[in-house]
Write a structure and sequence with these properties.
Blueprint (H helix, E strand, L loop, with lengths): L1 H20 L2 H7 L1 E4 L2 E11 L2 E6 L4 E11 L3 E16 L2 E3 L1 E6 L2 H5 L1 E13 L5 E5 L2 E6 L5 E6 L7 E8 L9 E15 L3 E7 L1 H5 L1 E10 L6 E6 L2 E7 L4 E6 L1 H4 L6 E9 L3 E12 L2 E3 L1 E7 L1 H8 L3 E13 L3 E5 L2 E2 L8 E7 L7 E9 L2 E12 L1
Antiparallel strand pairs: 1-2, 2-28, 3-21, 3-28, 4-20, 5-6, 5-13, 7-12, 8-11, 8-13, 9-10, 9-12, 14-19, 15-18, 15-20, 16-17, 16-19, 22-27, 23-26, 23-28, 24-25, 24-27
Length: 380
């Protein structure tokens, strides 16, 4: 019995000594840290979940309306529209009109013709109405109260064009001026069968992008294959799409396609397909969500960091809604963090970043992430 007591005392002494000098048993008592295949001691300081960090949802938005159109047939793009347009010319001066007409490169590559349309509102018929396209006369005659269509062939259409309207002098009516008032004046490019819709994106919209929403109505019984591309990248494809299509795009899904400045949506189908009320909504995240948590540091923790200890922060990114810079600060000290990715991420902090007592760790950023399982500790 005495021998058993002696052995028990010796076992307790040995276990205590092993825990003091550091052994796998000591690791078990405090936890362990594994990185790069090497396992060491680890002292936990705090653990928590954060949720969504970075750009936050707001109601700020801009809606781009592209109207209604039928795919599988010739398309039309408006180049110029005016409800009323007056020109005049006398022997001592006049009031000609000149316009720059730009044609989108995608439309130009599929151009059928350009049509100039107008109705005659008022005229004294003292001289001819003259229309020039890129300095070439395409209309020169007396224009009565009628409707007119002037067709410009595809070989005469460029990406940048000049349209001029004037009138000839009034002949024997030297004291007067030839005058024409045109109504519902329109210039349109006919092309196809693919439909193109151009729009601009501004720098602030790229910076604050939260999501894009593509929405339109159609007839799912029409049986055609619909493909929609943004700047050449497919963003939607379906056969016999539902009667109401609503498709949302996070920046991570669309960021490689969209750009600051001019952008083009293209719509193509394998058959006749009507699309109605086509729109693209840009929703902006103008606010930012920052998350803060506190953790405590004892005097022995500080001594450990001052020695061979290293501060470690481990966290899990469950979702990346938008790529950007994730900022992690301890007591306003910015930590050095490489690219953030889905899954496990780690970042170090130094003894100089923390105080004995209460400390604050803050997460913010120019992107948007869902962050969980944050662990703050000391590896040694």
């Amino acid at each position: 019995m005495d021998e058993f007591v002696v052995l028990l005392i010796l076992a307790v002494v040995i276990i205590g000594a092993l825990m003091v000098v550091g052994t796998p048993l000591a690791n078990w008592a405090e936890g362990n840290w594994t990185t790069g295949g090497v396992t060491g001691n680890y002292k936990s300081l705090a653990s928590f979940d954060l949720g969504k960090v970075g750009l936050s949802d707001t109601e700020t938005s801009r809606t781009l309306n592209f109207g209604s159109f039928t795919l599988g047939q010739d398309q039309e793009q408006s180049l110029k529209e005016m409800s009323s347009l007056a020109v005049s010319q006398g022997y001592f001066g006049g009031d000609p009109k000149s316009f720059a007409i730009a044609v989108d490169a995608n439309v130009l590559n599929n151009i059928k013709d350009v049509k100039i349309s107008f109705g005659m509102g008022e005229t004294n018929l003292y001289g001819n109405l003259i229309i020039k396209w890129n300095e070439k006369v395409v209309f020169d005659k007396l224009a009565n109260l009628n409707h007119y269509d002037v067709v410009i062939p595809p070989e005469d259409v460029k990406d940048s064009n000049t349209l001029e309207l004037t009138a000839s002098t009034p002949g024997l009516y030297f004291w007067a001026a030839t005058s024409y008032v045109l109504q519902d004046f329109a210039v349109a490019a006919e092309y196809g069968p693919e439909k193109f819709a151009s729009f601009k994106i501004y720098p602030t919209e790229i910076e604050g992008w939260n999501k894009g929403v593509l929405r339109f109505y159609t007839n799912k019984a029409q049986g055609a294959q619909l493909t929609i591309k943004l700047n050449g990248q497919t963003i939607y494809s379906a056969t016999s799409p539902d009667s109401l299509v609503t498709k949302e795009y996070q920046y991570s899904e669309i960021g490689n396609a969209i750009r600051i400045g001019d952008n083009v949506l293209s719509f193509k189908s394998t058959g006749s397909l009507e699309l109605s009320d086509v729109e693209f909504i840009i929703r902006l995240a103008s606010g930012s969500t920052a998350k803060e948590r506190d953790f405590n540091l004892t005097k022995s923790d500080k001594n450990l960091l001052a020695g061979n200890g290293k501060g470690k922060i481990e966290f899990n990114v469950d979702s990346v809604y938008r790529q950007g810079v994730l900022n992690i600060k301890i007591n306003d000290n910015q930590l050095s963090l490489q690219t953030v990715r889905e899954g496990k991420n780690t970042v170090d902090f130094a003894n100089s970043d923390v105080f004995e007592g209460a400390n604050t760790i803050a997460f913010s950023g120019t992107g948007s992430w869902d962050i969980s399982n944050v662990k703050v500790g000391i590896a040694y």
